[in-house]
Write a structure and sequence with these properties.
This protein has 371 residues and is of the alpha+beta class. It is 27% helix and 32% strand. It contains ten helices and 20 strands.
């Protein structure tokens, strides 16, 4: 049996669709101590995570961290070795994929090339025996939602990549799924289209009120789209928080360095563990106090101040233009640091310029120095 035949069989045996649920009817999604191994490789090492009804949570992490495995668990394409996956409080760990009523959007679109956009969106409804007039009305409604109301008769080869992904999104929503799953939905698109489409996905998700789990390795994508971001490392949850909290108050050194730009500077923690001496300054420490000693201080570029100074302790080595801001990299006696400053203020800081470096009075995160 080929893939298309299997898909048709699954859709025929799935529950009949209903109208799209209002936001108040959205369900929760929960991972309870979910573990999964593949031979000697641990994909998930006890994942605990709750996605609230109507929330968009992004799973963010490096390749191989387990985020795609987690998504497959929800879709029903894989099962945990241990733990539970719950939808609306119901354990679906052993429920077949076609009975879970989830909507999936892949990075490769997965559209049928011989069907028009309208027929692609309506495909699942047709497989479930929905009458032609009703399924075409539903498809038209969803194409309008994704901004393609005048493209229903076009075939995938007549659409751009961004338009194809919108059709795929509309198709995923056609069956009124309990949860929407996005698997790297923008990675195959160019930068400008990605920027536009992620805003559209966020708008559509908010309007539909559907609980959504999105897998991505792109921090900008996660920061701009998600209500909360779950950062995963080696199959474990490092931190789950709002984008602002994740950036401003990372729970671990891994989160601080994975989300946003961070520099490491050598420092010495005080005996009471509440402050650290770095670059001749004493700064408050973020997090619980611990024993004093030599540490690395993690600092964000916007908290680094640089100015030209013939007697300064550093030298500019690189300039990276970012529009209204410029990133200035400075070599110090021990390591280097990157500052983000207004482009106009950075105009005179060419590579080779001697500069002084100071840090803003801001709580900093510490980590052990590499050995």
């Amino acid at each position: 049996m080929n893939h298309t035949t299997t898909l048709e069989a699954d859709l025929r045996t799935a529950p009949a669709p209903t109208a799209a649920p209002p936001a108040g009817d959205a369900v929760s999604l929960e991972f309870r101590d979910v573990r999964r191994t593949f031979g000697a490789t641990t994909a998930l090492a006890g994942l605990d995570l709750t996605v609230r009804p109507g929330e968009l949570v992004a799973l963010l992490g490096p390749s191989g961290c387990g985020k795609s495995t987690a998504l497959r668990m929800v879709a029903g394409f894989d099962r945990p070795d241990h733990g539970q996956v719950l939808l609306g409080g119901e354990d679906v760990s052993g429920v077949p994929a076609h009975l879970r009523n989830t909507g999936m959007v892949f990075q490769s679109y997965g559209l049928f090339p011989h069907l028009s956009a309208c027929d692609n969106v309506a495909f699942g409804l047709r497989m479930r025996g929905v009458r032609r007039a009703r399924r075409r009305a539903r498809a038209a409604e969803l194409l309008d939602l994704v901004g393609l109301s005048h493209h229903g008769n076009r075939f995938p080869h007549q659409l751009s990549g961004g338009q194809c992904q919108r059709v795929a999104l509309a198709r995923a929503l056609a069956l009124a799924p309990r949860v929407l799953l996005l698997d790297e939905p923008l990675s195959a698109l160019d930068a400008q289209v990605r920027s536009t489409l992620r805003d559209e996905i966020r708008r559509i998700q908010r309007e539909s009120g559907i609980t959504t789990l999105c897998v991505t390795h792109d921090q900008e994508e996660a920061l701009s789209m998600a209500d909360r971001i779950a950062v995963i490392k080696d199959g474990r949850l490092e931190q789950c928080a709002t984008p602002g909290e994740l950036y401003a108050r990372p729970a671990t050194a891994f989160v601080a360095e994975f989300v946003g730009t961070t520099s490491r500077l050598p420092g010495r923690r005080s005996r009471d563990g509440r402050t650290v001496d770095v670059l001749g300054q004493t700064l408050a420490v973020q997090g619980p106090a611990s024993a004093g000693g030599t540490v690395d201080v993690l600092v964000r570029p916007e908290n680094v101040k640089v100015q030209a100074d013939p007697e300064g302790q550093g030298q500019v080595t690189d300039m990276s233009f970012r529009g209204p801001l410029t990133h200035v990299t400075v070599r110090l006696a021990h390591g280097s640091v990157t500052a983000s400053m207004p482009t106009e203020a950075a105009a005179g800081l060419n590579p080779g310029t001697a500069v002084s470096v100071a840090l803003a009075e801001h709580h900093v995160l510490l980590t052990d120095r590499p050995r």
